[in-house]
């Protein structure tokens, strides 16, 4: 359940001026699940998780369950639409692109 669903379920639409502390206290009384994935999860598994969890983003965690990033519906959409030619490349081009992308993410984040 998201914060907006929590506010909606309690009929508190007009309380958008409340503090973060108040929001967190309100939310702590509700069961809120944070959906996660790993950087090594497949694209299809991430899409399935987003769909089944009815969420707009997943928190990316490493093996120690530390947050290393977020993946959103926008990220997936951009990848599928703007990098669709990625899907049409040869196996060697894909392997080269994967290695470059992996090196980039290792440089940007510690996927440990």
Structure description:
With 112 residues, this protein is an alpha+beta fold. Helix content is 49%, strand content 12%. The protein has five helices and three strands, in the order ααβαββαα. It has a three-stranded mixed sheet. A hairpin with a 5-residue loop joins strand 2 and strand 3. The chain is elongated. The two termini are 30 Å apart. The model has no long low-confidence stretch (mean pLDDT 77).
Largest sheet: 3 strands, mixed
Class by SSE composition: alpha+beta
Number of helical elements: 5
Strand content: 5-15%
The average pLDDT value, as a whole number, equals 77
Beta strands, count: 3
State the end-to-end CA separation.
30 Å
Net shape? elongated
SSE order, one letter for each helix or strand: HHEHEEHH
> How helix-rich are the residues, as a percent range?
40-55%
Unreliable stretches (pLDDT < 50, length at least 5) are none
Query: For the CA atoms, what is the radius of gyration?
Result: 18 Å
Widest sheet: strand ordering:
1-2-3
Give keywords.
alpha+beta, elongated, 112 residues, single chain, three-stranded mixed beta sheet, 3 strands
Short synopsis of the structure:
The protein is of the alpha+beta class and 112 residues long.
